[in-house]
């Protein structure tokens, strides 16, 4: 079900999204080589709960942690573990904070130490994909224009756009309709409406767009099919009559 948020709901969304953003800023200051992904998760748990909020991912469909910490070839949903973060890694951290019944969802890919030019470019282009997607976005624009913009930009650099997972609506639930694919045909899909809150989250692979959902055996960790690195960047945005408001920036 697609939900349209009223002003009261939008201010609650703003609050949860602000916490999500600040959590990632906090993680960005602390994350470094030598830490385990579990230690990153502890930072996330500590920050979110210190804001009087709840990490929505913890226990979601049995998910065992407060964050997804995805290193290099892990695209998304990396379960925090004893994996040690190394100099040269790219690490995506995806978190959701809930306060007063509303969720805010965001992800960043952090560069650890001396990262190769190739990986730096992947992370930069992935962020650019998000900003291309919100260019001109407002009420009345067809939904799949988002995916069209992401795909066009990523593929112009020879990258693969993950299709097996999408962005999504968000509000009282972490995942609401509509699904927001990162690929698509311009001018197609439902028209966006003012008061919709959606997560736009390009997941971009350096090589093939294909991913493997079962390889890890934990039921969550998604890896690239070719083992090459992937990047992820996500914000929760509010659609308005005149444009978008990025709630997690
Ligand atoms: N935050 C993710 C998203 O962008 C969802 C994570 S799934 C979970 O949709 F199980 F980790 F919660
Ligand atoms: Co997310």
Number of strands: 15
Unreliable runs: none
Q: Helix and strand succession?
A: HHEEEEEHHEEEEEEEEEE
Q: Helix amount, in percent?
A: 25-40%
Named once each, the bound ligands are:
2-amino-4-trifluoromethylsulfanyl-butyric acid, cobalt (II) ion
- Report the portion of residues in β strands: 15-25%
- Based on helices, strands and strand pairing, what is the structural class? alpha+beta
What's the helix count?
4
Strand order of the largest sheet: 8-7-9-14-15
Please compute the radius of gyration using only Cα atoms.
17 Å
What does this molecule look like?
It is globular and about 45 Å long. The chain has a five-stranded antiparallel sheet with strand order 8-7-9-14-15. The chain is α+β, with helices and mostly antiparallel strands and 249 residues long. α1 (7-30) crosses α2 and α3 packs antiparallel against α4 (144-156). It has four helices and 15 strands. Helices cover 28% and strands 25% of the residues. The structure holds 2-amino-4-trifluoromethylsulfanyl-butyric acid (MF3) and cobalt (II) ion (CO). The site of cobalt (II) ion has 5 residues, from β4 and β5.
């Amino acid at each position: 079900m697609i939900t349209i948020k009223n002003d009261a709901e939008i201010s609650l969304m703003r609050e949860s999204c602000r916490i999500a953003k600040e959590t990632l800023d906090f993680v960005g200051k602390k994350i470094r080589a030598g830490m385990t992904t579990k230690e990153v998760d502890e930072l996330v748990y500590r920050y979110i709960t210190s804001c009087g909020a709840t990490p929505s991912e913890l226990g979601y469909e049995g998910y065992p942690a407060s964050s997804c910490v995805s290193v290099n070839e892990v695209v998304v949903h990396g379960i925090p573990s004893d994996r040690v973060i190394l100099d040269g890694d790219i690490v995506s951290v995806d978190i959701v904070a809930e306060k007063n019944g509303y969720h805010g969802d965001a992800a960043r890919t952090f560069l650890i130490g001396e990262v190769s030019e190739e990986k730096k470019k992947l992370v930069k282009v992935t962020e650019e994909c998000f900003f291309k997607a919100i260019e001109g976005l407002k009420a009345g624009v067809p939904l799949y224009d988002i995916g069209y913009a992401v795909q066009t930009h990523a593929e112009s650099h020879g990258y693969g756009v993950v299709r097996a997972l999408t962005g999504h609506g968000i509000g009282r639930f972490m995942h609401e309709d509509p699904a927001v694919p990162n690929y698509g045909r311009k001018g197609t899909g439902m028209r966006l409406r003012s008061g919709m809150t959606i997560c736009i989250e390009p997941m971009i692979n350096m090589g093939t767009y294909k991913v493997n959902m079962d390889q890890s055996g934990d039921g969550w960790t998604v890896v690239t099919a070719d083992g090459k690195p992937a990047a992820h960047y996500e914000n929760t945005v509010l659609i308005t009559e005149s444009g978008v408001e990025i709630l997690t920036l």
